[in-house]
Amino acid sequence: MGKKTSSAAALVAPRAQTPPEPEAAEQPVTPLAARLQRAFGECLRVAAAALVGYTLAATAWRVRHDPQELAFVVGCCVLLAALLVCLRRAERLAPGSPVAERRRLQAAVWFLTTVLSCAFAYRVSLAMPDVLVVLVWCMTAFVVLAGFFMLVLCNRKDQQYHRCLDEVDASDDKPFDKIRHTDGLV
C-alpha cells in the first residue's frame, strides 16, 4: 500500500520537481552540410532552368513558321522569368526593408501575373465555345481583381502581420517551447 501512495504522490507532484524531458535536438548544421545543401539547391535550379530552356527551344522550333505563336511562347517565358525574379527579390527582402520597395515588388508581381493570366485566358478562349469563353474571362477577371486587392490594396493588414511576426521574433522567450510534448498528449 505504501507503493501506491508514493506513486500517487509522484503523479500529483508539482511539475517543477520533474526534470524536463529532452526535446528532439536538432542536429547543428555543419559547414560541410550547409555547403552540400546549397550545392544541391543550385543543382536543382540549374536542372529546372535547363528543363525550361529545353521546353522553350523545342516549342519555339515547333512554331518557328508562325510569328504570332512564336511571340506568344517567347513572351510568356520572358514574363514568367521576370515574375520569378520579382518573387525571388521579394523573398530576400529584410523585415526592415523600405516599404516603397516592398510595394513596388508587390505591384510588379501583380502586373506580371495579370498579364500572364490574360495571355493564357486569351489562348484558351480561342479553342472554346462562347459560353465557356465568358466563364474563362470571368474567372480571369476575378483572379486579377483578387490579386489587386491582396497585393496592392491590403497594405495595412500586411504591415500588422509583419509587425506581429517581428514582435514574436524579438521576444526572448518562445511561447511554444513552454509546452512539453507530454503535456500535449494529456
UniProtKB/TrEMBL annotation:
Chain spans, region Disordered: 1-27
Membrane spanning stretches: 43-64, 70-87, 107-125, 131-153
Superkingdom field: Eukaryota
Keywords, alphabetical: Membrane, Transmembrane, Transmembrane helix
Xref: Pfam families: DUF6490 (PF20100)
Presence of the UniProt keyword Disulfide bond in the record: no
Keyword rRNA-binding part of the UniProt annotation: no
Stated name of the protein: Uncharacterized protein
